[in-house]
Every structure is written in structure tokens, then in C-alpha cells.
Specification:
Layout lengths: L1 H12 L3 H9 L4 H10 L2 H7 L6 E9 L3 E9 L4 E8 L7 E4 L2 E4 L1 H19 L1 H16 L8 E2 L13 E8 L6 H14 L4 E4 L1 H7 L7
Parallel strand pairs: 3-7, 7-8
Antiparallel strand pairs: 1-2, 1-6, 2-3, 4-5
Helix pairs in contact: 2-3
Length: about 220
């Protein structure tokens, strides 16, 4: 019954998927997209929860003493998965021509640099970071909704605080102009970086959202 009740509560909060798509289609800037996602963090919970409906989402999530990411999602079973997300606007093409070849737009480069600094902190302080993430999770599960936390229908998360955590890094920004060639470039970047950083256009990210596209 708690799960059903929480589903109803989240349904009351949900914005239509079309509200996010409309912002993207009109080339919204980073601030507008951040505001909408902060208003409805279920977009991120639905996108990244595995198993489905088992998540805690955060916005303006601190990483280290001086850094933060736009959003974070905790999910998983046994090993907790911590997903750190930086976003940029939909007001620029994801890739641009530079000197006769294609390259990522400068704003994607900025976001990638931001996430790389977060990666550096995590890897230099992994043990402390792992413990801190579990401490944050426990606070939320005990009712302290820090960092604008939103919990999914199933909770507490079925993870073990004594085990390692899996940290994923994601950048979302820009508009797609050539799905096939840009997908290759994004995949090449993913496989050539360590740890890998997932780069998404707003178009590719929206295609991965579960549920009907017309909602």
C-alpha cells in the first residue's frame, strides 16, 4: 500500500513530458531546463532508476568542499549506483565545424570539464565519498530531505552500505543535427575516457525516456 500511495503522490507532482519537449524544441537555455527538472525530478528517476521506481533524486548536489553537480540519482540493488549529471541548454548544436572537422560544442566541453573535476574528487577520496553517499541516503530514508531530495515509490533502497558504489557521469546538452554521426562521436568519447563520461544531446536523452512520447 505504501508503494501505491507513493505512486499516486508522484503522479500528482508530474509534469507532462511535452512540457520538457517544448522547452527543448524552442531552444531553452540551461537555467530554464534546470528549473523544470528541479520542479519534477521524476524525469531523472524514471530515466535512471534500475530497478524501476527505486531511486532518490537530488538537485544542486554537492561533491567535495567546493563543487557540485546539477543533479544526482541514487539507485541500484546491493551495490548502490550514484549517477552525477551536468546539464547545458538546448540553445546550441551539439557538434560544430572547426577547421574542417566536427568537434563538440564549447558548452559541451565546459560541462565535460566540470564533470571531470568531480571525477577527480571522487577518485582521490573514494572511501570517504562512498561513506558520505551512504550517509546521505540514510538521512533521506529517515525523512531528512536534503538537497531537494525526491524518493521513488520503492524505498528504502535495497543497497548495502558496506559495499562499493558504482559512480556514473553524464553530460546532457545541445541539439542533434545528425543522429548517426553524432552517436558515433558520443560512443567514441565514452569508450576513450576513463572513467567513461556519457555525453547526450537533449534529443538522444528524450528518446531514452521510458513511456509514451506524446504524454
Amino acid at each position: 500500500q505504501k508503494v501505491v500511495k507513493r505512486r499516486f503522490e508522484l503522479d500528482e507532482l508530474r509534469l507532462p513530458r511535452s512540457s520538457l519537449q517544448d522547452l527543448i524544441d524552442r531552444g531553452a537555455k540551461e537555467r530554464e531546463l534546470c528549473q523544470l527538472l528541479k520542479q519534477d525530478l521524476t524525469f531523472l528517476g524514471d530515466a535512471y532508476a534500475h530497478p524501476a521506481e527505486e531511486y532518490i533524486c537530488f538537485s544542486e548536489f554537492p561533491i567535495g568542499p567546493h563543487g557540485r553537480v546539477d543533479f544526482a540519482v541514487f539507485t541500484g540493488r546491493s551495490w548502490m549506483k550514484v549517477i552525477l549529471i551536468e546539464i547545458k541548454g538546448a540553445d546550441f548544436p551539439f557538434m560544430v565545424n572547426r577547421g574542417g572537422y566536427q568537434d563538440f560544442a564549447s558548452k559541451i566541453g565546459v560541462a565535460n570539464g566540470q564533470i571531470r573535476r568531480r571525477i577527480e574528487h571522487v577518485h582521490r577520496n573514494y572511501d570517504a565519498f562512498r561513506k558520505e553517499m551512504h550517509e546521505v541516503r540514510l538521512q533521506v530514508e529517515q525523512g531528512n530531505m536534503i538537497y531537494h531530495a525526491l524518493t521513488g515509490p520503492f524505498g528504502p533502497l535495497g543497497v548495502d552500505r558496506e559495499k562499493d558504489i558504482d559512480v556514473l557521469y553524464i553530460v546532457i546538452g545541445g541539439r542533434e543535427r545528425d543522429e548517426i554521426s553524432e552517436s558515433r562521436e558520443r560512443f567514441s568519447h565514452f569508450t576513450s575516457t576513463h572513467p567513461p563520461v556519457h555525453l547526450e544531446t537533449w534529443d538522444s536523452w528524450m528518446r531514452k525516456l521510458p513511456g509514451p512520447a506524446y504524454l
